[in-house]
Specification:
Elements (H helix, E strand, L loop, with lengths): L1 H19 L39 E7 L4 E4 L2 H5 L6 E8 L8 H10 L5 E5 L18 E5 L18 E5 L17 E5 L18 E5 L23 E5 L18 E3 L10 H4 L6 E3 L7 H8 L7 E3 L7 H10 L4 E3 L6
Parallel strand pairs: 3-4, 4-5, 5-6, 6-7, 7-8, 8-9, 9-10, 11-12, 12-13
Antiparallel strand pairs: 1-2, 1-3
Length: 341
Amino acid sequence: MMKKHILICALSLFTVSTFAQKKKAPPIKKPVLEAPPVADPGMGSNSGEYPVMIPESAMTHIVGTKKDGQEVQFKDWAELEKTDFSQFKKFSFSTRFSDKSLETTILKRILNEAISLESLEINNFKIESFPEITSPNKSLKELSLSRNNLQTLPASVSNLTALEKFQSSNPLTELPESFAQLKNLKELGLDNNEFSEFPTVIFSLNKLTVLHVSGPYKGSAKIKELPDQFQQLSNLKEFGVSNASLSTLPPSISTLKKLETASFAYNQFASFPEVLATNTNLSYVPFSGNPLQWELFLPSIKKIKWRGLFFLNETNFTKKQYQEIQKILNKIDVYYEGMND
């Protein structure tokens, strides 16, 4: 009996190990969703428990890094207001309470007085308007604005002449014409925007290697078409427009010979665009959430010449259809819902 018990256990372990080795889909960038509201710190999770009181100050983080590398944490705004901003190369502001305000006077001082500032990050603070930048800022290289409810940027944003990376997750309705003067930009992310048209000022930024534009996960303002000017952005390695209403891509997309990542998830494509299919340099293609039509999609993928990862979740295809896709694209890893069943 002891030998029989040992044999059964060994077989069970082998079964579990084999199941664990089934291929799992790699992570894929999902549409940016607004953070859920934070629960009241004074409420206990279960009846009968004592509430966990978290001080409000612990929810707000203000961190600066000096030119010598020393990190400084500020306990409140009063302490920050007494600071010599010229000694800092990095500032990061974040809060878990989305209703917290960051006064534009402080932000304006940082942008205009922190002459050595290279990186500025502001997450989840209410900012009614982005402050005017009164003189050219030749040091700031990275600017990240996330969930600040900004709808516009001032024309003086063009004074950020050294800016190389700009990330925004705000309901911007447009970009100022002066944005075209940010000639050093290499990475640009415009998430959760409210653009009704693709901003043409972007085509002046010919150093861009990364460009991602996405609308809100649920919203009415959707980009329906792209201008046929992408030959002006020949350095793009990553490009995507998601949560939009695109159903076609312009011919100039085919000129992006350096393109490795093309993300057009959650649009209105019925088939796979030929301008992407024939780009042999692609290796990572999120294309989920499109209303693909089998009779149009099937012949379109037969034109694919690239190899890499192809994401096709939320397309309403059957498992048999997905298997046929994988058979046709036998040199590409196709990922879809239920593939690990």
